[in-house]
Amino acid sequence: xxxxQLIRLLVGRELTLxxxxxxxxxxxxxxxxxLTSLILWWVFSFIFASRLPDGTQFAPxxxxxxxxxxxINQGIQSAAEAIAGNGSILTxxxxxxxxxxxxxxxxxxxxxxxxxxxFIVVVxxxxxxxxxxFPLVFVVGFFLALMIAxxxxxxxxxxxxxxxxxxxxxxxxxxxxxxxxxxxxxNALSQSMQSVVNANPFTSYLNCIRWAASNNSEATLTxxxxxxxxGLITPIIGSLMFKKFWPRTVAML
Amino acid sequence: MPIIExxxxxxxxxxxxxxxxxxKELFRDAIKGRVRINNYVALDSVSFSVDKGxxxxxxxxxxxxxxxxxxxxxxxLPPTQGTVxxxxxxxxxxxxGAGFHPELTGSENVVFYSTLLGRDIKKxxxxxxxxxxxxxxxxxxxxxxxxxxxxxxARLAFATATAEHSEVLLVDEILAVGDASFQEKSRxxxxxxxxxxxxxxxxxxxxxxxxxxxxxxxxxxAGKVKMSGDPEEVVSAYEKSF
Lengths: 253, 242
Fold this sequence. Notes:
Number of strands of chain B: 9
Strand content of chain A: under 5%
Mean pLDDT of chain A: 92
Largest sheet of chain A: none
Strand order of the largest sheet of chain B: 5-6-7-3-8-9
Oligomer: heterodimer
Largest interface: A-B, 28 and 31 residues
Structural class of chain A: mainly alpha
Number of helices of chain A: 10
CATH superfamily of chain B: P-loop containing nucleotide triphosphate hydrolases
Order of helices and strands of chain B: EHEEHEEHHHEHEHEEH
CATH topology of chain B: Rossmann fold
Distance between the termini of chain A: 27 Å
Shape of chain B: globular
Distance between the termini of chain B: 37 Å
Helix content of chain B: 25-40%
């Protein structure tokens, strides 16, 4: 109960702090994915638009990719940083440290949800329509937030112990970005590359979100199973790992 | 039954020798077989208990383990061995204003800090004005904390930490907050809390405070209890050791 109150406060705090010093404030959350998508669209639409399956529009395909990718990248980095960054609190007041990681992942989910507004506009501009399954976008988003919190917990011990682990995580995330079909259609890849990209769990999340929003991709049953299983299992593994190492790590904060 | 019970507590910090907090270097050292782990003993077989209404002062030189002991009592650091039992709400005043953020307003910070301490958010919101008034910063409560002077921040933090009754107060060298009149006020609030039955553990280098407030003193040296008992005796023995 008390934890829930604290999580709510922390999510609000993270969101307000992020925009406090910026002139356009929350507008940045709307503008950033639009600009990124615009540039990628400009560069890649010539190569990839014609390779998409029939009925798939490149603009919403790309924008969904950009939004999910931002969610994953920034989400994992700030979730992993959450405990190290709040070390000054955790060494003085007893709070369950996992609360900071969870709040950070939920704040990223809120950002993702805000990004859905310009996304809806793009869907209609491209001649598609939002379909009745749209609310499932947020269900998938919630499971993605759970997975991000789990990964964040796994990394947070490393973030406290080793300063250069951040560089390694950044590198891993960049590799992950290219192994997720953000701006290319999967069938533009070689057969072997396709199986690698399909084995990436984030591809499943992205497929389900594209499908649920505007039927802009196929989402197989396997995709859905991957979403639910990884979303539930990652936080369990993450918190077990975290609990094992935390007692020895807290003294290093 | 005592409120705080510490039994045979040992706490060791693991220190990686030639550690610079870098994975790359750890990897290099591991290959060359140069990783050595040292256990630094911060607390060793420390036992004591504190009853209701008692004020226990912890003395010792820098690095003797005083702050580590407070952190163990605050449940922030888990002991490597032994047990710590603390019953009731803890108000840790180890560092005033832990969790205060400069960009948030005074009121927002009070609410956040109180929630961190495990207090109910609704009750706190009803009390914010009262806390601000007691700290003497009523006019500033709606401005970001970065516009506060450091004395004002400390006063607000003290007011928030002591706004609700706690069974246990952990105090690290904070009675010297603010100007003379506020020090008087905060001392009075402390006495009030003690009189209402709180158990206090106090770390201080100010022997006058210890003599005035403490009902018992514990002298730590290199993580071990060197002497404990009547504050007058412990303080004079401690002062002679210099």
